[in-house]
Each structure stands twice: as structure tokens, then as C-alpha cells.
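Following up on my earlier thread - several people asked me to post the actual chain instead of describing it. Fair enough. Here it is, all 343 residues.
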Amino acid sequence: MDAKAGRPAGSAGAAGPSPPDGDRRARPRPLRRYGQNHLVDRGVLAAILRQAAVRPDDVVLEVGAADGLLTRPLLERARVVHAFEVDRRYAERLARLAAGAPGLRVHLEDALQARLDELDPPPTVMVANLAYNIAIPVIMTTVTGVPSIVRWAVMVQKELGERLFAAPRTKAYAAVSVLTQLACEAEQARPVARSAFRPRPNVDSSFVTFARRPAAGGSWRVGTERLDSAGYAALGALVRRAFTGRRKQLANSLAGTPVGAAPVDLAAGRAPDAQGADVRMRPGDTRARPGRRLTRADVTRLTRADVTTALAAIGASPAARPEELDPEGWIAFARRLGVLGSA
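Reply from S.P.:
Thanks for posting it. Predicted structure:
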């Protein structure tokens, strides 16, 4: 897994599968621009398949199928495999594999450009070997945009694997930590040495599994708090804004933030922010009414006092920084700010 090599999502993965033994002479040369480092350790392959724990009724999303070394055993375990590969040098090999495997759907395209939420049948689990530069976008795209996926089993750079479920107040704790933990729960992380890949990458890897938090009645529990999809989207915007100024106090980084960034109808309180985005008025605001078009002057924005008051209400320091709040604390904080409704 080469942190220096950027690639589209769905190329022969950062920990991409190597070809079956009989096809080794025909394997395309790994391309640095795709971050191709093929998994060659069969013992590691067997271990990650056990950890992935794919079931017979699962529909798998695989990003970076390459020669199909991982695809083949997935087909033996799952009902359907959606295999994405952007490197068309693997097209013929994957087509031959698909000809003998009715459960295989080959997608020769960039997974990040595809409508993953429209796949038929919808994927229930993601099993993928991801290059560092596309790992976060792929994971977050599937967490936020493909609700049918309830479990992930992914090979990532070791540093990212640690970041996904890092604890607050640690160097690894970041926006992706909060956003992942708000929606998912960690299962297991397995370190994978550089020697398991060819060519040998410049970083160590980790195979991590995690699952979506179980939902009931359209929402799910995070500690003592509950969150739904709309709340997750609104909270995600707040978290990302806060962590762009990681070293800043929340009172400074969030001052000026429009309250409730989720778009709604004008009659229900929609107004454009300074960049033209739609923002929601505070609950109960009477300035939004049928027949009246809201203006920028109508938008409510957070002040430093709003932020420090909300922090004090949840027992946090008025000088708190974003990495000091755990996921449950972020929900409580957002409720106090008016970004989320009452529990």
C-alpha cells in the first residue's frame, strides 16, 4: 500500500489480489499511479477471509478486483459479488471469470464515480483492498451513501486503520474517527506486514472489520444518545468544519457556522448562506412562512457565546478543541447548538 500513489477507486488495490497460479505469466505489471501492490501471501489471504466472515446470503462490494484472487473465494461464500476494477488491463481476465460465475457482476469503472446506492442487488457487505489515497473517500461514501451495507472488511494503511476507531484526545483522532464511530462499531483489526505484498509497499497495512450500528425506528444508539440519517448528515457537516481547524478552540472554528445546514423547503425555513448553500432556520423561527422568500439576512449563525454556552451545558471546557469530544459528546453538543433536534 503506497501512500504516495494516488489512484481512482476500483483499480487493482493497494493490497490488490494477485492472479491465480496458472495465470502468473500473464499478470500485468503493477502501475504506480494506481497504487498497485498485489497480495501474494496466501496465509494472509486465508486469514482475512476468515475475518471477513462473508455469509451465503451476502452481496459483496469489492473495490479493486484486479486478477480476482480475492474475488474467487468471495464468490464461493457470497450470493453475489459486485467487483469494481478501473484498470482495464484486467478486463479480459475478469470477463473469463464472470463467464463461469453467475454471481459475479464486473464493473470496469471508478467506484467513486459510480452510483453504488443503485447496484442491483444492493450490497450488504464491503470487502476491499484500498489504496491509502482513496481509502477514506471510499469508506465514507459507503458509510453515508449506501445504507444497505451493514459491514466492512477492508485492507487499509495501518495508520488509517488506527484512525477509524481512535480514542478522543489522541493524535489519531480526527473527523473520520468521529464520523465512522457515529455510524459504526469496531470489530477487529489485523496487522499485515509489508512483506505480504509485491511490489513491497512503503507502509504497513491493517485489515479492519467494523459494522453499522443497529437501527430501530429509523435511528440508532450512540451511547445514551440517538441519531438518525438526517441528524448524521447535519452533524457530519459540523464535525468536518470543526476539524479543519484542529488546533483551534471550537468557539473560534465554529463561530459563523449556519445553524442546521440540512436543506429544506423555503416555506419550511430554507435560506442561502454566504456561499449560496441552503441552511435551515432555528426551530420555531417565524421569519419563514409561505409566500415569503428568505434572504441571507435571515440566516442564523453561531456566535462564540453560542458555542461556549453549549460546551458548558455538556460539561466541557469553553476552550475545548474538536478532538476533546467523543462521538456521544458531539451529539449532545450539536443538540445544544440547535444543529440537531431534541432526542
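The chain has two domains: 21-212, 220-337. That should answer part of your original question.
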